[in-house]
Amino acid sequence: MRRILFFLSVLAALVVTTTPATAQVVYIQGGAGFPSSSGLNDAYKNGFNAGLGIGIPITSNVEGLVRGTLDRFENDLAGVGNFASYSATANLKLNGPQRNGRVMPYALAGGGLYRLGVEDAYSSEFGLQFGAGLGFQTTPKTHLLVEPNYVLVLNEGENTQYFPVRFGVGYRL
Predict the structure, then answer these.
(1) pTM above the 0.70 mark?
(2) CB atoms within 10 A of CB 141
(3) Which residue from 25, 86, 96, 161 puts its CA 20 to 30 A from 65's CA?
(4) For residue 11, what are the contacts with CB-CB under 8 A and spacing of at least 6?
């Protein structure tokens, strides 16, 4: 986990120092997660997620989004730990037209590194995520967001799949 946090910190520092400050958006998010692959669904209950991201406009309606997230699912069985997924992903976010001057739909897709496991037994795998959401502008620099996603981690055997629903805030620097 320390390596992933270090990687995200270095990546965030590079992004912040190499792009104009007015173009960046910082995202803070959290929410619920729902297991969907049979291996996760049979053994673990719904969980939670939390994460940080940095968005950089590419065009007027396309944004690059680098995000680090923790998704965790609880287990009630004695002697079996909770399942955790630490991810570092790069995404493209397509922003739709803003409605009523405040509501903006969007879609995103991307991939990255997922570190999955229970307690001390983790493996690193490549995964994909797809999602859509709504942004609600609250001030000229701030918007709230709600974003359901589908995560597919491509590991040996049965792929790991889950649905995080993220709630958060975006702040334009």
Answers:
(1) yes
(2) 11
(3) 161
(4) 66, 88
Between the alpha carbon of residue 72 and those of residues 32, 33, 35, 79, 128, the distances in Å are 9, 8, 10, 17, 17
44 within 8 A of 118, measured Cβ to Cβ: no
> How many angstroms separate the first and last alpha carbons of the chain?
28
Of 148, 146, 137, which Cα lies nearest the Cα of 172? 137
Q: How many CB atoms lie within 10 A of CB 14?
A: 12
Distances (CA, A) of 162 to 5, 13, 42, 129: 22, 30, 12, 10
Residue with tokens 């968005």: 55
pLDDT tens digits for 101-151? 799 999 999 999 999 988 778 899 999 999 999 999 999 999 999 999 999
CB 106 within 8 A of CB 97: no
